[in-house]
Amino acid sequence: MLKDVSRREFLALAGAAATSPTWLDAGAAVPRQGGTVQDVMARVLERLPAVTTPNPVDGLKAGRADLVVKGIATTAIASADAIRRAADRGRNLVITLEPTFYARADAASPENRATDAVFAAKRALIADLDVAVWRLRDRWFARRPDPMLEGLVETLDWKRYQSETAPHRVVLPETTLREVVAHVERQLGARALRVVGAADLRVSRIVLSPGPSAPAMTFGNLATADVILAGEPREWEGVEYVQDTITAGGAKAMILAGRLLTEGPGMRVMAAWLTSLLPGTPVEVLPTFDPYWRPIVA
Amino acid sequence: MSDLMIETPQTGRPTARQIVDRIKAALAALGVNWRAETVDTFKAGDPDTPVRGIATTFMATFDAIQRASAAGANFVISHEPTFYNHLDVTTSFADDATFRAKMAFIEAHQVVIFRFHDHWHARRPDGMRVGILRALGWPEAPGTVVLPPMTLRELAADIQKKLGTRAMRVVGNPDARVSRVIVGLGYGNPPLNADLDVVVTGEYQEADSAWDNPAYALDATTFGQAKGLIVLGHEMSEGFGMDECATWLRTIVSDVPVAFIRAGEPFWSPPQRTLLK
């Protein structure tokens, strides 16, 4: 039962992201309305598949577990700006996909970051606004159907073109790569897309690989696709493979839209899901802004 | 750069293995001993092939190999992998059409490919650092470069112009006044911190990495600090360093011509929609 678990143990369990649902006993001890951060975390986690992630990253990263939740904001990244926007709108629990404190699993890395001004200002901001920040990635990614694909397809307005059996596949009416790039740019609010392939290429079959973009998604799908729409494939992996396939005569392309920008839409899916799971608690997604811009050289 | 002609070689030319032995000896003389664990190994072809010409490049893409071969080089020295992963493990590509086409070309043209990564970085000065700093026209010293104060927008535009990049990306307030800049190489990213205004680098994991510079630069900007991140792309960051590598190789290899083949920025970007004034 939750009440028999100390706060520290609870956080360790939540942080380990490998909790078995059995310890929660179907949430019998969890209030159904409102409640604290700890209550909300328990209610959410009992509805997500357990995972055995070797290096889990989930957990409460800042704020009090006993804070009474007035509202929830989901975001790809709990930037200082996102936390302010959440607080301005009365959402005192921020659920983030990416780290709050600038390193994997929110470690103080490098060590001197923990004492520097940016780190301190963020800690102070969170304390002043009395906000809690919960990272929910490992367990959220385990949800099926894949919420990140669902969100991206919705944002791109491609639902009617999405494969039912292979949700990472979209078949558009034939168009050009240039037009697909312009559409993606507009729908995601991208300011600095990068593209491999000829702008005039006729394309139709798109494979979606948002977020970290595992290279296997490109290696395994390029032969039966025209375009890989990815987050952050690496230049010596997926990018080189696309380049070489083009050199070998393939009519192929890749669009790199960035990790955060391709993860943002999935957090809207999370907000919608939480709204149904937590009736009475206001939930909304904070839009993800492209962190990048490009200079204009006359 | 791809149209340089390599002269018809003379007889008694060295093999690729002998060229690598010369590299090892030259580095040992500089105090850089060959490591037991390294990615700097032969990746394709027969190391005992006599070398007609050497081409250095950022990455032995299929295109770079074709251009090297057309220029008369049959030994490609590549900084980055040939086969799409850090260790150039090819087992999973055995039936892959792209891999097979690339291998077929390499075999048909008797090209030998060697990776020169760890030890080229280990030389002092780091050959990659020399390459990018020279391209930027900045002092060729390790550590922080102190530039005359300017805005992040001006700095970014200056870099874009000097390097000719099409797909550079910047994080931070364009109007922030910056001066203290550090240059990271390739996938190596110095952490942005209180002692720096800008990190210039090649490529990185955008979040959940050893340290996340983009998130740090965004938050520092929100807090009113003058911090920026300029992301060149991996090739744009390290391509010039392999030109420097060709120059260095010519000091130890005089019996075989050495050329630099620019692999080239893989990306283009759509025209700017939101003008940042």
Gist?
The complex is a heterodimer of chains A (298) and B (277). Chain A has 298 residues and is an alpha/beta fold.
Task: Report on the architecture of this protein.
The complex is a heterodimer of chains A (298) and B (277). With 298 residues, chain A is α/β, with parallel strands linked by helices. Chain A is 35% helix and 17% strand. Chain A is built from 10 helices and 10 strands. Residues 1-31 of chain A have low confidence and may be disordered. In chain B, 33% of the residues lie in helices and 17% in strands. In chain B, the strands form 2 sheets. Chain B has a 5-stranded mixed sheet, sandwiched between helices. A 5-stranded mixed sheet of chain B has the order 5-7-8-9-6. In chain B, helix 5 packs across helix 8 (234-252). Classes of the chains: A alpha/beta (298), B alpha/beta (277). At the A-B interface, helix 3, helix 4, helix 7, strand 6 and helix 9 of A face helix 2, helix 3, helix 6, strand 6 and helix 7 of B.
Ranges of chain A where pLDDT stays below 50 over 5 or more residues in a row are: 1-31
Write down the oligomeric state: heterodimer
Largest sheet: number of strands, sense, barrel closure of chain A? 5 strands, mixed
Model regions low in confidence, pLDDT < 50 over at least 5 residues of chain B:
1-5
Percent of sequence in beta strands of chain A: 15-25%
In order across it, which strands form the biggest sheet of chain A? 1-4-3-2-10
Task: Estimate the helix proportion of chain A, in percent.
Answer: 25-40%
Q: Please describe the biggest sheet of chain B, giving its number of strands, its sense, and whether it closes into a barrel.
A: 5 strands, mixed
Q: If you average the pLDDT of chain B, what whole number results?
A: 94
Summarize the helix and strand pattern of chain B as letters.
Answer: HEEHEHEHHEHEEEHEHE
State the total count of DSSP E strands of chain B. Answer: 10
Class computed from helices, strands and strand pairing of chain B: alpha/beta
